[in-house]
Amino acid sequence: MPELPEVETTVRGLRPVLEGQTLWHVEARRPDLRFAFPPDLRQRLTGARVTGLGRRAKYGLVDTDRGDTMIFHLGMSGRWRLDPETIGTHDHLVLETGAGRRLALNDPRRFGSVDLFPTADLPAYPVFAAMGPEPLGPDFTHGYLAAALEGRSAAIKALLLDQRIVAGLGNIYVCEALHMAGIAPTRAGGRIARKRLDALVPAIRAVLEAAIEAGGSTLRDYARPSGELGYFAKQWRVYGREGQPCLCGAPVRRRVDGGRSTFYCAACQR
DNA sequence: CCGACAACCTGACGGC
DNA sequence: TGCCGTCAGGTTGTCG
């Protein structure tokens, strides 16, 4: 589930529940995610007031009045459950606010992570320091991307998944954006036809914005007291659609690159 | 620099 | 009903 739009949707869902609230109770139930929670996580968060929420790439940010930001990553299977009726095996971190709301970070595969870092130094958080621009931010321009791709012989799909070039894209949205721009996923980054390259930044933006919009409609389901997700209605043009027709009528194809599925239309994408 | 691959871990699903 | 293989939105490191 979690690429940039899903993290953005999550942060927007958490904001009204957490912002301005004091964390009354903090329980680290299963600290060993991709890397362990900071050992003092509980004491640093308990009693802290949440001053704001944000997002960097696929990471959610929870700022506190103690000068710490909680940085969470949802990995492959992570999500926050709101007011869960019961706490289960995969609820690894549980927060309770002064208003009596409970939030559980649920992540069966434990590829996600939770960390704390001084808010003022966030750009120096090692992962963030190595990251490229936000795809929806002002620095992600056609000029920037063209320069980053110039001379590169690697497949454009791999380059767009490289968080150092642009931070936040994952497998689904790279497939979708390349389809929208008409670029074959195997095309060398430095050899994309002018017209198609011109279309790439707008395509990436459009795909992400549409997905955030769709996430917005899912948000109401997400925030329901039952807490269970009504999963995203898939409106993807190629992802997960092997054998089904592209908008042009040709069948969507699937190939495997580096162990990951790539969906594309051989007729539309060059 | 590049691509392939493995590792981390659990759950869902299809085939038999 | 159950067992087994395959696959899944991410990240990081190694190898040739």
TrEMBL record:
Ranges of residues in domain Formamidopyrimidine-DNA glycosylase catalytic: 2-112
EC number: 3.2.2.23, 4.2.99.18
UniProt GO MF annotations: 8-oxo-7,8-dihydroguanine DNA N-glycosylase activity; class I DNA-(apurinic or apyrimidinic site) endonuclease activity; damaged DNA binding; zinc ion binding
Keywords: DNA damage, DNA repair, DNA-binding, Glycosidase, Hydrolase, Lyase, Metal-binding, Multifunctional enzyme, Zinc, Zinc-finger
BP GO terms, sorted: base-excision repair
PANTHER family linked: FORMAMIDOPYRIMIDINE-DNA GLYCOSYLASE
Similarity field: Belongs to the FPG family.
Protein name: Formamidopyrimidine-DNA glycosylase
Native species: Sphingomonas horti
